[in-house]
UniProtKB/TrEMBL annotation:
<feature type="domain" description="Carbamoyl-phosphate synthase small subunit N-terminal">
    <location>
        <begin position="15"/>
        <end position="145"/>
    </location>
</feature>
<keyword id="KW-0055">Arginine biosynthesis</keyword>
<keyword id="KW-0315">Glutamine amidotransferase</keyword>
<comment type="subunit">
    <text>Composed of two chains; the small (or glutamine) chain promotes the hydrolysis of glutamine to ammonia, which is used by the large (or ammonia) chain to synthesize carbamoyl phosphate. Tetramer of heterodimers (alpha,beta)4.</text>
</comment>
<feature type="active site">
    <location>
        <position position="358"/>
    </location>
</feature>
<feature type="binding site">
    <location>
        <position position="240"/>
    </location>
    <ligand>
        <name>L-glutamine</name>
    </ligand>
</feature>
<feature type="binding site">
    <location>
        <position position="269"/>
    </location>
    <ligand>
        <name>L-glutamine</name>
    </ligand>
</feature>
<feature type="binding site">
    <location>
        <position position="312"/>
    </location>
    <ligand>
        <name>L-glutamine</name>
    </ligand>
</feature>
<comment type="pathway">
    <text>Pyrimidine metabolism; UMP biosynthesis via de novo pathway; (S)-dihydroorotate from bicarbonate: step 1/3.</text>
</comment>
<dbReference type="InterPro" id="IPR050472">
    <property type="entry name" value="Anth_synth/Amidotransfase"/>
</dbReference>
<keyword id="KW-0436">Ligase</keyword>
<feature type="binding site">
    <location>
        <position position="313"/>
    </location>
    <ligand>
        <name>L-glutamine</name>
    </ligand>
</feature>
<feature type="binding site">
    <location>
        <position position="272"/>
    </location>
    <ligand>
        <name>L-glutamine</name>
    </ligand>
</feature>
<feature type="active site" description="Nucleophile">
    <location>
        <position position="268"/>
    </location>
</feature>
<comment type="pathway">
    <text>Amino-acid biosynthesis; L-arginine biosynthesis; carbamoyl phosphate from bicarbonate: step 1/1.</text>
</comment>
<dbReference type="InterPro" id="IPR017926">
    <property type="entry name" value="GATASE"/>
</dbReference>
<feature type="binding site">
    <location>
        <position position="59"/>
    </location>
    <ligand>
        <name>L-glutamine</name>
    </ligand>
</feature>
Length: 384
């Protein structure tokens, strides 16, 4: 018999590992996934499920993700749920990894997939204590070091403190597609959308395609000419990693689209870019919103929805007044009920809106799917 997944996982688990935070706090555990070292911004995600979608979300580039759910890996890794072609998190922190995955779709264990993609993780640490620490002190730079000879803590701390900050990081070009591609409409084609890829999640064009939209996904470096070469009924700006304050190119591109009054929809990074195009600022949240259980109120209907989030930055726009912008009146359409952070923007005088969270919801509750229908309505109205 060949070596089982279980056997190799046990062998790796015996190796020591340490998580070092930039403020000097350390957590000792066991190696998980690939053995080695990695750096990134330590952030926590409160999703109870959906780790495969989280790990493959390009917006997590250069982040070490801490799972607050204590058991991770129970459903293994399948061939269908990836949100992009690879794992993007720079490290993964879990408390109690599954020894044996059990799911009819699982093709291998999460541990094996982390090894195959060379993603360094750590297990067996008190993720509740770590999460409380990050809530109190804020997201911060960190390193995971595993194996027999990991060096002194002083030396490791110095290496963590030498890493770049997330504030000021420009990462979207690194993760976005280099070549344009088309996601065909499911059934009869009704609309064409140009989607600017800043780190797009695979489920997003899919949610548009199932509404009869042919989606032309364009690289982050696309120009106004590239967008209008596909004769779009609407333009979409995707989610993406890094600090929106660095995204001057996408802000200029979106400004050009707004000038033409083409129906526009943005998600997450796309919401921050709309905020900037309208003249609002963006800022870094203390510890961000990550997970699939965040309450958001749609202020246009008053309804509350449970939503999927992954953002560390937010738009600084006034909650209770309509703002005058270059593109007419704008208002905050959605707000997070945990902390009143701006979760959506809409223009009142032309067809453009965006949300800070993830209506494509992979993984996640589908409460916010209506936003794709709103985009369709804007395109229908424009056509009429
Ligand atoms: N998922 C995203 O698009 C995240 C946007 C941005 N990188 C943030 O952290 O706020």
């Amino acid at each position: 018999m060949t070596t089982s997944t279980r056997g190799t996982a046990f062998a790796r688990k015996a190796l020591p590992a340490v998580l070092v935070l930039e403020d000097g706090r350390t957590f000792r555990g066991r190696a998980y996934g690939a053995v080695g070292e990695t750096f990134g911004e330590a952030v926590f995600s409160t999703g109870m499920t959906g780790y495969q979608e989280t790990l493959t979300d390009p917006s997590y580039d250069r982040q070490i993700v801490v799972a607050t759910a204590p058991q991770i890996g129970n459903t293994g890794w399948n061939d269908e749920d990836d949100e992009s072609a690879r794992i993007w998190v720079s490290g993964y922190v879990v408390r109690d990894p599954a020894r044996v995955p059990s799911n009819w779709r699982a093709k291998r264990s999460l541990d094996d997939e982390l090894v195959a993609q060379n993603v360094v993780g750590i297990s067996g640490i008190d993720t509740r204590a770590l999460t409380r620490h990050l809530r109190e002190r804020g997201s911060m730079r960190a390193g995971i070091f595993s194996g027999e000879a990991v060096g002194s803590e002083t030396e490791l701390l110095a290496r963590v403190q030498a890493q770049p900050h997330m504030k000021g990081a420009s990462l979207y070009e690194e993760v976005a597609t280099k070549e344009a591609y088309v996601v065909p409409a499911v059934g009869a084609k009704r609309f064409t959308v140009a989607a600017v890829d800043l780190g797009i999640k695979g489920m997003t064009p899919h949610r548009m395609a199932e509404r009869g939209i042919e989606v032309h996904v364009l690289p982050a470096t696309a120009t106004e000419e590239d967008i209008y070469a596909v004769s779009p009924d609407g333009v979409f700006f995707s989610n993406g990693p890094g600090d929106p304050a660095t995204a001057d190119g996408p802000v200029a591109l979106m400004t050009a689209v707004l000038k033409r009054k083409t129906p526009l929809f943005g998600i997450c990074f796309g919401n921050q870019i709309l905020g900037r195009a309208l003249g609002f600022g963006t800022y870094k949240l203390k510890y961000g919103h990550r997970g699939i259980n965040q309450p958001v109120q749609d202020r246009t209907t008053g309804k509350v929805e449970v939503t999927a989030h992954n953002h560390g930055f937010a738009v600084d726009a006034p909650l209770d007044q309509v703002s005058d912008t270059t593109f007419g009146r704008a208002e905050v359409s959605h707000v997070c009920l945990n902390d009143n952070v701006v979760e959506g923007l809409q223009l009142l005088d032309q067809p453009a809106f965006s949300v800070q969270y993830h209506p494509e919801a992979a993984a996640g509750p589908h409460d916010a799917a209506y936003l794709f229908d709103r985009f369709v309505s804007l395109m229908e109205a424009q056509r009429a």
